[in-house]
């Protein structure tokens, strides 16, 4: 079956296999394997160090259907983490010194156990990040959430791919920009991004098309000027993230005939300095079913941890996960291009 048809099918397994096949075929087009490029820069294998962050994907349900979404999330998805797997996450956390729980989705707040889980993680004294799409904070049934997040001192990292309405809506859907501005004002009103409040609010930018993000510091200043002058909005940081050649963005690249050029851009922009801080070296990613991955992107490609390691959170110890070899592939070029890319933005500062 043609690749695009499979990608559109929505069957997660067929989809992941199909994406891996596309990335694998690159070898025939002369694009080196990621391992070969690492070796060429003196890195025999990529290994993790001590873990600082547990990234928990609590489900694929979302109130939006963004064009670049690497999770393929949307309102019709039904995959949600169960209480049993949340409890495994809490067990692993309590047995470790991991300081941060980074909750993502979908729209993580749509998992009915989101607020309970946040409360339990905070009870353990750990920091919580909510990867929020902003619009959920103004959706019917969820308007209490801004106050909940503030009360529990949850850091909010929110997607806002542009400070211009047309660009933002083109990527995330009609009306998303205005709802996002409304949500940011609500968060500011509760103290987010205000001095000495302890409430952190950061924004995420990713390019609209197949290009690398611009300089993070300069773009942050432009966002700050625009949002402050036009809307009186404040935030702490802007994180620039490279679009990964997977899921909906991969389908779009293939459909528009831009896949080869984008991969060439990523490979030719390989930056050795980004390797030190790759997020897979300090994070473990858990899917809604409790399966373990080196990162959210490997999760979407269904690329498991290396063979000898436990695959499920129910049977893992923290010592299994430190100093582990990381499973890599050609999609990893998305993390090492230019200034590098991670869930907290660029990896190499100017
Ligand atoms: S808001 Fe986030 S999870 Fe939801 S569709 Fe958009 S990118 Fe995907
Ligand atoms: S995609 Fe990025 S974070 Fe994931 S394993 Fe590759 S380099 Fe690491």
Write up what this structure looks like.
With 350 residues, the protein is an alpha/beta fold. It has one domain (3-336): TIM Barrel (Alpha-Beta Barrel), CATH 3.20.20. Helix content is 36%, strand content 10%. The protein has 14 helices and eight strands. It has helices spanning 3-9, 12-25, 34-40, 83-94, 114-123, 145-151, 165-172, 176-189, 216-231, 247-255, 259-268, 296-300, 318-321, 333-336; strands at 53-57, 100-104, 127-132, 155-159, 201-205, 237-240, 283-286, 292-293. An eight-stranded mixed β-sheet has the order 6-5-4-3-2-1-7-8. One iron/sulfur cluster binds next to loops.
Which key phrases capture this entry?
single chain; 350 residues; binds iron/sulfur cluster; 14 helices; alpha/beta; TIM Barrel
Number of helices: 14
Query: Into which percent range does the helicity of residues fall?
Result: 25-40%
Assembly context of the chains: single chain
Major sheet: size, sense and barrel closure? 8 strands, mixed
What ligands does this structure carry?
Answer: iron/sulfur cluster
* CATH class categorisation: Alpha Beta
Q: What spatial form do the alpha-carbon principal axes imply?
A: globular
* Structural domain tally: 1
Low-pLDDT parts are none
Indicate the radius of gyration in whole angstroms: 19 Å
Task: Output the strand order for the largest sheet.
Answer: 6-5-4-3-2-1-7-8
Secondary-structure element string: HHHEHEHEHEHHEHEHHEEHHH
Q: Beta fraction of the residues? A: 5-15%
Find the count of extended strands (DSSP E, 2+ residues).
Answer: 8
First-to-last CA distance: 45 Å
């Amino acid at each position: 079956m043609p690749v695009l048809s499979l990608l559109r099918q929505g069957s997660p397994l067929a989809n992941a296999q199909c994406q891996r096949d596309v990335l694998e075929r690159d070898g025939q087009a002369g694009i080196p394997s990621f391992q070969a490029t690492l070796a060429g820069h003196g890195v025999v294998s990529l290994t993790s160090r001590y873990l600082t962050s547990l990234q928990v994907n609590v489900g694929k349900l979302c109130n939006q259907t963004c064009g670049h979404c690497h999770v393929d999330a949307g309102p019709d998805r039904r995959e949600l983490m169960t209480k049993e797997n949340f409890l495994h996450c809490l067990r692993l956390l309590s047995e470790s010194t991991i300081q941060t729980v980074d909750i993502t989705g979908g729209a993580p707040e749509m998992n009915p156990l989101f607020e309970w889980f946040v409360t339990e993680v905070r009870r353990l004294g750990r920091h919580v990040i909510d990867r929020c799409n902003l619009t959920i904070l103004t959706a019917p049934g969820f308007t209490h959430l801004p106050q909940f997040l503030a009360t529990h001192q949850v850091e909010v990292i929110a997607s806002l791919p542009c400070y211009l309405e047309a660009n933002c809506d083109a990527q995330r859907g009609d009306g998303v920009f205005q709802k996002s501005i409304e949500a940011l004002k609500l968060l500011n009103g509760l103290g987010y991004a205000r001095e000495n409040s302890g409430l952190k609010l950061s924004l995420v930018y990713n390019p609209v098309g197949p290009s690398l993000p611009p300089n993070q510091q300069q773009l942050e200043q432009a966002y700050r000027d625009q949002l402050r002058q036009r809307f009186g909005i404040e935030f702490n940081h802007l994180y620039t993230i490279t679009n990964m050649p997977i899921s909906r963005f991969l389908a779009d690249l293939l459909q528009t005939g831009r896949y080869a050029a984008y991969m060439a851009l990523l490979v030719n922009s390989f930056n050795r300095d980004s390797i030190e801080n790759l997020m897979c070296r300090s994070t473990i990613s858990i899917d809604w079913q409790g399966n373990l991955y080196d990162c959210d992107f490997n999760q979407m490609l269904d690329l498991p941890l290396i063979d000898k390691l436990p695959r499920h959170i129910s049977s893992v110890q923290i010592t299994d996960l430190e100093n582990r070899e990381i499973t890599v592939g050609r999609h990893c070029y998305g993390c090492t291009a230019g200034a590098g890319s991670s869930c907290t933005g660029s990896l190499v500062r100017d």
